[in-house]
Amino acid sequence: IGIELEGCDFEEFEAVQYKVLNALLQSLKNTYPIQYVVGHSDIAPGRKTDPGPFFHWSKVAEKQIN
Predict the structure, then answer these.
(1) How far apart are CA 41 and CA 20, in angstroms?
(2) Which of 14, 19, 39, 57 is the most buried (most CB within 10 A)?
(3) What are phi and psi of 9, to 5 degrees?
(4) How far apart are alpha carbons 25 and 45 in whole angstroms?
């Protein structure tokens, strides 16, 4: 499942984006057997750079879903 946030690699994401992202991840977790959440750059290294250095994984409650 691919999720995109509005923005770019070189700008901070807004608090509301993390809030909505966490709600979406929780909803997806309740529906699908999701084990991990990774960045686009993890799937296509060298080709994709998002979410970038200004994305704070610590603000994503379910970055590793158990």
Answers:
(1) 21
(2) 39
(3) -65, -20
(4) 23
Active site residue 12: no
Please name every residue paired with 30 in a beta bridge, in sequence order, or none if there are none: none
Ranges of each domain in the chain: 34-66
Instruction: Show the tokens assigned to 10.
Output: 């070189």
Confidence tier at 64 by pLDDT (50, 70, 90): low
Average pLDDT over residues 3-14: 93
DSSP letters, 12-60, are: PPPHHHHHHHHHHHHHHHHHS---B---HHHHSTTT--TT-TT--GGG-
Which one, of 25, 13, 15, lies nearest residue 54 by Cα?
Answer: 13
Could you say which of 4, 11, 12, 62 is catalytic?
4
